[in-house]
Amino acid sequence: MHTAYNIHFLAFIFLASVSLQQTAAVPTLLGSRSWFPARISRWIDGFHRSQPMTGCDKPRSNRYLNVDTQSFVPKEDDRPANEIPSYVLDYAPLVHLYSGEKFWPCDIAEHLEHVTPYLNYTQIRATSEHLNLTNLDELNQYNNGRFVYLTSDDNVEARPDWLGGEKNIPDTPDEDERRGRPREHRNNAHQQRPLASPNEEQGHPILGGRSSAPAVLITVDKPNNITDAFWFFFYSYNLGNLVFNIRFGNHVGDWEHTLVRFQNGEPTHVFVSEHYFGQAYTYDAVEKLIEPAKGNREGKGKARPVVYSAVGTHAMYATPGHHPYVLPLGLLHDETDKGPLWDPALNALTYTYNPRTDTLTPSTLTPSNQTPSTQNPSTQNPSTHTPPPPTEWFSFRGHWGDRHYPLRDSRQYEFAGQYHYVNGPLGPRFKNLARRKVCQGREGDPCVVHDWLPPAGGIVGGLERGGVGW
């Protein structure tokens, strides 16, 4: 990017930000014909168009599969359709949430208690008639669910408690607690965990904490003895990032995911979702933590991958630090650090998925039904897991948050084609669960797999490896 252009760009954004801060009315920059906002809009829009289609814009039948489902052979062994291999939980990712986060993980069931479905901007159910995880798919009767938005019953700018999910901050267990002693759930865990010590905390192994908000685990068996384990994390609110004090991209509802790919029972790759795109790594490249083996203080368990959730946007990264994207000079960036360490395997809704039949099946393992003092995912008894988690919510084809607010709404503003509030996201079924390559994009898109980690917040390098699919 030319220096002169960067100077003009910075000056333009700065002047715009000053005007936004000084006006008492709702900030809007509409109908501008100047060269700069038009160029910025084309730049950002072009970037988005260059990213893999994830089904967020035009979901159609089987678009989310992104493969020839008729030739998809999901299984090559005799494992029951509802069985999740133990190695999936042995190598479940550990997630560092941001220490200064304001919008923590949320329970999708509780989220539904605070939203009402709208068909675009028209309410289609009474506010008092909240849907739940067992009947959310009923909304697909409205134009196949395409334009249905689960709209907040509250003004999101009032920051209701359910939106922030503070009660779901992971606790901070120690070794004795994990081994069976009842542990106290604390809502101020983010104030107790130090931000350093990547491998040990005061001489003891770091253990991930349990969140009251269940994660969602969906495993997909694929040819060549590949199993993809998708760990989905839900937040009721996404706080967009600032560019010179102008905030863009807020939305209700936020789905993020980390994929751990296995072949022949061994972890081979890790993919982390980031906005419209993401990063893929070899398993050997990513940071890992080793938990002590159960019942043996000196013994070691499996080496589990560590990922990082960015403040506000919850985009996933493989390292802590600043992560620039879209705009030059780090003007737009995410930030991650070693905040509360979340172990999603301690509380999850678990499923298997067959892309060919589009069938989601509750698994024999449901960690969410275990008490915190007895949870150990690798040794749980499937017979104790009742009832099975509901599946109907997965079939919902609409958006898990509000439709972007019109410009007449006092909460909305637009600049260079970008909005303060945007549409809520689609759900996990639109994340290309049947992908051949570990990356999320179209089958023909390049899949760059990084085989090393950069310094914290640095730009990652790697190689394009076309042979990481089936």
Helix content class: 10-25%
Q: Count of DSSP helices?
A: 7
End-to-end separation in angstroms reads 38 Å
Please list the strands of the largest sheet in the order they lie side by side: 21-20-7-8-11-12-13-24-25
Mean pLDDT: 77
Number of strands: 25
Biggest sheet, in brief?
9 strands, mixed
Low-confidence runs of at least 5 consecutive residues: 1-12, 14-36, 41-71, 178-203, 368-385, 461-467
Shape: globular
Write down the Rg: 22 Å
| Oligomeric state, counting identical vs distinct chains | single chain
Would you tell me the structural class of the helices and strands? Answer: alpha+beta
What is the beta-strand fraction? 25-35%
Key descriptive features of the protein:
470 residues, alpha+beta, 9-stranded mixed beta sheet, 5-stranded mixed beta sheet, 25 strands
SSE blueprint:
Layout: H1 3-22, H2 35-50, H3 86-90, E1 94-96, H4 108-111, E2 115-119, E3 122-123, E4 148-152, H5 161-164, H6 175-178, H7 189-192, E5 200-201, E6 204-205, E7 215-222, E8 226-238, E9 242-243, E10 246-247, E11 251-263, E12 266-274, E13 277-282, E14 288-292, E15 300-309, E16 316-317, E17 321-324, E18 333-336, E19 341-342, E20 348-354, E21 359-362, E22 414-415, E23 418-419, E24 448-450, E25 463-464
Parallel strand pairs: 1-15, 7-20, 13-24
Antiparallel strand pairs: 1-19, 2-3, 2-4, 5-6, 7-8, 8-11, 9-10, 11-12, 12-13, 14-15, 15-16, 17-18, 20-21, 22-23, 24-25
